[in-house]
Design brief:
alpha+beta, 2 domains, 3 helices, 4-stranded mixed sheet
Length: 157
């Protein structure tokens, strides 16, 4: 009789253990991970502003003596108005647009053409939409003398 009781207790313990493991894994997969990986909610007007800010990568920018690389070198955009920036490479060699401080936008990821599209080929473009106000300095990785800065200000939202 006592051996049957021990066997039942052992079986109940195993069943309880399995139930706890399944419940824990379910919580982790269906509740914790989605909340942990969720991107912040951003207004549609910030994700798709009505204006695009344009930057040109000028011909000859790969030469260190060239002082006109990113044109304009400094610019200002406004959240919900002009926070989408498009760089167009008008030079004959590939370039990059790479953050100086490893900036990662909470919605759009790393501000770095190399990590998303690679080097920007001649006549190619790179687009990045900033979703937070701030100052964002950047450079070209193969040509580090090429530097630019974007300031994104809060809109009147």
């Amino acid at each position: 009789m006592e051996q049957v009781k021990k066997s039942q207790i052992g079986g109940i313990s195993i069943v309880c253990f399995i139930v706890v493991v399944v419940a824990s894994l379910s919580y982790y997969q269906f509740l914790f991970l989605p909340a942990y990986n969720a991107k912040p909610v951003v207004a549609d007007i910030i994700l798709h502003p009505p204006q695009t800010t344009k930057v040109s990568i000028d011909p000859g920018s790969s030469q260190e003596s060239q002082t006109h690389n990113f044109e304009p070198k400094q610019l200002t955009g406004t959240l919900g108005v002009s926070n989408k920036v498009v760089w167009t490479n008008t030079d004959s060699v590939p370039h990059s647009v790479t953050t100086d401080n490893n900036y990662v936008d909470p919605t759009n990821g790393k501000f770095d053409s190399i990590s998303t599209i690679g080097l920007i080929p001649p006549k190619g473009t790179y687009t990045f939409t900033f979703t937070q106000p701030g100052e964002y300095s950047y450079h070209c990785t193969p040509h580090p003398w090429m530097k630019g800065k974007i300031t994104i200000t809060k809109g009147a939202m």
